[in-house]
Amino acid sequence: MEATQVQQLKLNVTNINSFLKKSNKTYIGLKKQNSTLLSNQIQRRKQEAKEKKIETRRTTGFGLGKVGDKISSTGGSIFDKILGFGSFILAGVLVNSLPEIIKTVRGVIDSIVEFVTPIQSAFNLIKAFMEGDFNKSEYDMDKKRVDDKLEELNKDGGLIDQIAEQTGILEPLVKALKPAIEQVRNVIGGKRKVLAVKDGKEGVKDLDTGEFTERQFTTSEREKYVSAGGQGAGGAPSSGGGGAPSSGGGGAPSSGTAIPSGSSGKYGSLLDFIGSGEGGYNSMNQGTQGNRIVGSTGNASSKIGKNLTDMTIGEIMDRQAYLMNRNNPQISDYGIFAAGKYQIIPDTMPGAVRGAKLSRSDKFTPQNQDKLGMALIMNKRPYVGRYLRGEHNDVHGAMMELAREFASMPNPDTGRSLYGSGNKAFHSVDEVREALIRARNKPQPKITPTTRDKNNQASVLNTTIGEEGSTTFVLMRQQVVT
After folding, report:
1. Domain range for 80
2. Distance of alpha carbon 17 from its chain centroid, rounded?
3. 475: helix, coil or strand?
4. pLDDT tens digits along 336-370
């Protein structure tokens, strides 16, 4: 019995020992697994903390919300806080400077567009010529843009003249390019196109056909159109050419057509009618400020110490350029804006001079001012000239063209001047209509009477018919022998 109990006791002890060993192994295994899991968890947390720190640094450079969170947080290094604060200040500077940044970027983009657009137009015209589509109206704006660029290149003091001055003995050869460029302009036909807005849409109008082709303006074209007295597509009121009255009203370039000899005499009555509302041969002003014209006088010598008729056209243009420079005072004893009997403004003067076949060295005499006036109504506003010559019967259209050119002429639809800033129509719609009809049907030569006394008499020796049917009277004084 005892032996059996002893054996049972040994067996129990053995079983317990075996169980304890097995349990100990299981415990050790679980402990190792727990240690591994704990270690992995610690590593994972470290990795997440590192990733979060990197992500926070990235965000502080671009987002104000993250920067604010970073600064207000008590955690993170002093470097992180300094970086976050600097980023916040930088972001504030950028926000405050945003309008100027946008303006600068826009200016760069506009400059690129202004440079590329004429080149693209030239390629469009070459393509149209090769494909036989050159005369399609869809290329009118391209013709206008290329012509404007060529005109700028070829104008007095333009790039051709500048290059010529630098070439020494080759100067005559370089300047010989100018007539060739004019021939190219004539072939392109861009002189007959003007910027226009119709039904709130920007585009170009063919002066010969009256056809309007929609095409969005560039920034400079829009500014040119508005400053010339038009209205933008959004209906913005015209600035009147920097606040100036008179000439330059629709942005139409000179057609380059030569003015026939004696034409100013043939249409002298119309010129006097226009001048009666614009000014005299020594009239001038210095533009406008607000809604009033400044520096206005019918006697230029009282303002600038010199009569306009005693100055050369070049002197007039130089004084106009002086006033147009914003660094110079507007009201002074030097600057001129609108000049002479036809109140020709700076933007209009070069084209009028070319159209009148004059130069900077010619005097701004009454006779030459009349030639410039003829250039305005026959070249710059050819629709008026075509009406006067009987090539069409649209007197309303001719009246509108006069209103675009001269601030004193009323819009035939409203009876008011197209220009604001102190400018008012001087004539009624009926008066303008009658003046055009009279000049068309019964052109009167403009003759300046000679002084007569008992020893002299003015005799008409002969009468000849000049170009375009103009009548030329040749007068001679004869000594009367008694």
Report:
1. 61-133
2. 104
3. strand
4. 999 999 999 999 999 999 999 999 999 999 999 99
